[in-house]
Amino acid sequence: MKTAHKMALARMAYHAVHLGRAAVGKSDSAIVVRDGVTYDLDIGQGIDFAIYLGNFFERDTRRALSELTVPGSTVLDIGANIGAHTLHLARCVGPNGRVLAFEPTDYAFRKLSRNLALNTGLTQRVSLYHCFLASHDGDRIPDAIYSSWPLTDRASGVFAGDDVHAEHLGRAMRTDEAKSRSIDSILAENGNPPIHLVKLDVDGFECDILRGAQKMMSGQKPIFVMELAPYVLDERGASLGELIGLFRPHGYKFYHERTKARLPNDVESYKQLIEVGESINVIARTG
After folding, report:
1. What number of helices (H) and strands (E) belong to the chain?
2. Which is the most buried residue in 23, 104, 121, 198, by most CB within 10 A?
């Protein structure tokens, strides 16, 4: 299902919940516990609302991360947003594991930091990086990156799409406080810990990020849980072919995240699987 269709359903559900909460004097702000994790949510936001309803945000991805994470390991959450997967991963790695979480937008990083602070039992397991991952340290950072999926208009309370992405309906948020880094550089600073798993969801910036992670990919070959969205790659001047080409030399194969079925390694076959405006979530691994 296209993200736009999911957002349309979420908007209808949100308005019902918003009216119900307003009727008893409650705002759109809510602190809730879901699956043992505490979140400070704005239910007028798509990700927050999915968590609020019952931790429905990317359930298949959360399940895959649970299955693939090894207790005591080090994992990366690239495109952490408000921490929905970051905090879940922190529970999965256990007290001897570590999560490195990366988020470039000021808006989402503040929410990520707040949610981590609410979970004192997990804080020692997570290192937060307010940075834009790129091919090299110091690369140019876009002024704004999509990290908000609003269910309402900020002024009127009624959704209006004049400043959101035409396909996935995200709103771009500022990156004024972020730094530009590469994965290989950050891992070197941390003593090059063995990386077992990478969650990657960055709306078209995958190729630049992976070019800055070639030492990790060639030496450690971690498992990737990631989104494939050809239309956003095209918007960034990249392509699905380029993305697949960055994995191929290291022996990676692609599998459907939910069914675990083997997926093709050629671009033409994906055109039959992914329509414009759609994406699929995959697992990339060498084993």
Report:
1. 11, 14
2. 104
